[in-house]
Hints:
It contains 13 helices and 13 strands. 41% of the residues lie in helices and 20% in strands.
Amino acid sequence: MPDDDEPDDERTSGAGPRRGLTIGAFARASRLSAKALRRYDELGLLRPARVDPYTGYRYYDETQLERARLVAWLRRVGMPLARIRHVCDLRGTDAVAAGREIEAYWARVEYETAARRDLATFLVDHLTLSGDRPPAGKGAEAMEHTNRSPGMLGIRYASRSDRGMVRPTNQDTAYADDGLLAVADGYGAEGARASSAAVEALRSVAIEGGDLLNALTEGVVRANAAVGAVAGASGTTLTAMLWTGSQLALVHIGDTRAYLSRNGEFFRITHDHTVVQSLIDGGALTAEEAESHPQRSLLLRSLDGTEEAARPELRLHDAREGDRYLLCSDGLSTVVPPEEVRRVVTAPTPPEDAVTELLTLAQEAGAPDNVACVVADVVDLLA
């Protein structure tokens, strides 16, 4: 490429006016590699101030260093490129909003790290206890932890599903009880039966000895088989949580979503299994561009009775008093603006009121799709 053979003078190309920093000089000043700068140029994240039309050399202005260094710092904390672009663009108009975006991103990272920690702890305990001769001391402590009676935490919840303003039938299912929160979005000729079959299969899951993760795994197998028994080329997405009084086990597949409001922060805890999301993850598409993409509803994973497509995410979480969870179908998340969803979910209102307001907002926006949502609060039952 031309940039691999730059002019000797870092600021000029032959005789003439100053043209700015070459890609090599800018790379050294920003602590980004030339390869990364080329990639960021292609993605529109950090374009050069000028490209020589004859040589193809890239030239950068010193005023771009601040944005470049912000990109480098955000990459160091692991932020995806599409989100970095959003933060950098925000910084130019509203630095406070950009800071909130970084704060929300890091809150999600901490939450997911804690979830992985909980899962690792569970697996250590499970494998230790499943051995013929568990080690003295640690094995006993693990048994005590696994069989400990739940505390006095509980959930208060509300769920609703609505046909919307356009679709002739409702293929969404929303369900909530003391042990299960679930939203499923069916598709195909038998989509309504598929979504209800998946949720009904999870309702029959028995949790023995506090073994949430294995119970959830068994529930997913049952749910996929139940969907497979439905006639026609049909299937469903599914986002659900099993509850035992101190922990939640999450199963997620497709583009239904789960959000968490905790300590004033609100963030999504699931990842869409869609073609568009894979393009966003790769930096080929921004979240804004995804909203109008023709393949935004094309799923990569779902429950359809086959093992190939049925590859859900399974995670274990510790619940905290004051947590509020939102589970919803894309009939809500793609229609109601994110800031409105945040406002409703973080407001100190009962779950019933939050669900009602969310569905009202979807209807006011035209409700082109079925809508389903569950709102659940983790509360102290003795308070």
